[in-house]
Structures are given as structure tokens and as C-alpha cells.
Amino acid sequence: MTTHIPKAPAYWARDAIMPGIIAIGPMLPGTLAFGMAFGALCAQKGFTLAEVEVMMATVYGGLSQFVAVQSWPSTLTPSTIATLALLTTTVNIRFFLMTASMRPWFGTLPPWQSYPAMLLVTDGGWLAAMRYREHGGANAWFYVAGGIVLYFVWLVSAIPGFLLAEQLSDPRKFGVDLAMPAFFAAMLVPAWKGPRRAIPWLVSGVVALTVHWLVPGYWFIIAGALCGALSAGLMDEPPAQERPA
Amino acid sequence: MNEFLRSDVMLAFAVMTAVTVASRLGGFWLMRYVDVTPRVRRMLDALPGSIIVAAALPVAVNGGPVVMFALAAAMAVSIIRRNDFIAVITGMTVAALARALGFGG
């Protein structure tokens, strides 16, 4: 099936700013809830609000921040910092795959534009951008505008959580732990392109479950994602090359 | 520094930031040297679904019945309404309600 719309090189035009922001709308409740829960966790762990904001602004990876703070060592030594770095890497190495997939689109821009843009990659922002690209979009503002809004929402989100830490001691009560998985589940529906294109998903799922079961930590994300993508590469080009209609 | 920004904490954040930035820039940088053949294109196209499944499925399976039910509800809403926003809210609300009613997990 040659459903591939010719993929145009990236360009900047302001008319994609609003659509880009609207496209990340579904991420906002989850981002806010997640950031609030994270702020509350940090307050309980004895971080200052200034420290929390520095972490939000620099690391900018929600899940990695959460697991790092949850397992924060009582004293920071070179070895405990190395452990934190490894933990962060296992959670965030998926960004590597995400920005790799942005190359065919953003690679046509000058590096001083494209590399800073890659710092804005998040699960939600990237998924929304890939969906836009899938439909033939090429306007760089779509991805960048959504990414900037998500970044600032994320920065703000920890503050109420930090201040209301007492009331938010159990974020599960509000379903916060479902925010990201529910968003992922919702994004899977429009990504469905028939059973053939879902074979890599199956591979990814089986590998992720197996690795999660056998190996402690978060290696299962990158292991599953890599195996899923590799299986797609190993599969032959779809047979319907003679384009039906 | 002072007690608002402890220096050892800042150092730990800096290291975490470094590995995260390397992840974010590394993939984009590496692909400069990779020829995007149809095979590579298929691999890149399969990434969104693969990452979603790899990140969410173990969470769903290990989360117990409440989490699985909430995710099923989110997907159902997404199929029927084609609205991600309502789907996320539904998933969170279903889990919160089920837990308030005393269901574990």
C-alpha cells in the first residue's frame, strides 16, 4: 500500500501555531496532574521548591524525575549519583528513538533551529507531531508551539502540588497514575492501520512484558520499542504494491 | 550555595540533565549519518505504536483490574468519540471512582 504522502521538508509558517497548541490539549490534564503529584512527592522528600523548579526546567522528563526522586539516596556520593544517572538513562533513552524519527522532517532545517527543537521532545508532543506528519504536515511551528506550551505548563504544574503536599499524599486516589497510560491508550486508537502494521506492536508488547518480568528497572521501555521497530524493518514491504485503486 | 539550592542536589540534577539531553540530541544527530531507505522508514514509522505499547502494557498488566478497566474505558472513549482529551479524563476518573468505592489496585 503506497499510502505514503510525499513528505515535504520542514518550513516555518505561523498558521500552524494554534493547531499545534490545540493538538497537545489532551496532554494538559495529565501533565498538570502528573506535575502536581511530582511536586507533592518532592515536598515529602524534603526538596525545596526552588530545587523542584530547577529539576522541572532542566531534566524535563516526568517519568524519569518521578522514579529518581522516589529512589533518591539519603546521601549523594559519586556512586549514588551514577546510579541516578543510569536510572534516568534507562527511562529517557526512548527520547533517542523519538528524535531519530524526527530527522527526515527537521533535518532539512539549519542545526541551530533543529537541535534546540529536539530538547522539547516529550512523549505527548512527539506523538502529536508524528500524527501531524503522518497526514502530510511539514510546518515546524506545529511541533515547536505545542512543545513550548507543554514545557511551561509542566514548569507551573509542580507548584500547587508542592504547596498542597498534605492533601496530595496519595495521588493514586485521584487516578494520577493513569494519566500517562490513558493518554497512550487513547493515542493507540488513531495509530491503528490494520493488523499488519500492528505486528511490531505485538513484538514490542511481548518483549516489554518479558523484560519487565526478568530485569529490574525500566529497561523494558527501550527493549520493547527497539524490538518493535526492528521487526517492522525485517518485515517485507507490504505485498499490495500494485496499489488497489 | 545555600539551603534553597543545595550544591550536591544541583550536581545530581546536572548529571541527570546531561544524560537526558544526550538522549534527546543523540537520535537526531545519529540519523544524519543513516540513509533513510524504505526499510529504515518502516522502522521509524513503527516507533510511535511500539513505544506506546512498550511503555504502557507492563504498567497495565501489573496495575491490576482497576488500571486495566480504566485503560479499557479510555480506549473505548477514544474509539467512540475520537477525542483524546475526554479519553484521558475518563481513564483517570474511572480509576479514581473505582478506588473510592474500595476496589484495590
From TrEMBL, chain A:
Q: Which domain of life is it from?
A: Bacteria
Name the keywords, alphabetized.
Answer: Cell membrane, Membrane, Transmembrane, Transmembrane helix, Transport
Q: How does it sit in the bilayer?
A: Multi-pass membrane protein
Q: Does the keyword Metal-binding apply?
A: no
Q: Which InterPro entries match?
A: Brnchd-chn_aa_trnsp_permease
List the PANTHER family hit by this protein, alphabetically: INNER MEMBRANE PROTEIN YGAZ
- Any one Gene Ontology cellular component term annotated for this protein: plasma membrane
Q: Where, by residue number, does the polypeptide cross the bilayer?
A: 20-42, 54-73, 79-97, 140-162, 174-192, 199-221
Quote the Pfam families the UniProt record gives. AzlC
Q: Where in the cell is it found?
A: Cell membrane
Under which name does UniProt file this protein? AzlC family ABC transporter permease
Question: Which family does this protein fall into?
Answer: Belongs to the AzlC family.
Per the record, the major location class is membrane
Biological process annotations from GO: L-valine transmembrane transport
UniProtKB/TrEMBL annotation, chain B:
Concerning InterPro entries, the annotation shows: Brnchd-chn_aa_trnsp_AzlD
* Family matches, as Pfam families: AzlD
Q: Which residues cross the membrane?
A: 9-31, 51-73, 85-104
Q: Which UniProt keywords apply?
A: Membrane, Transmembrane, Transmembrane helix
Q: What is this protein called?
A: AzlD domain-containing protein
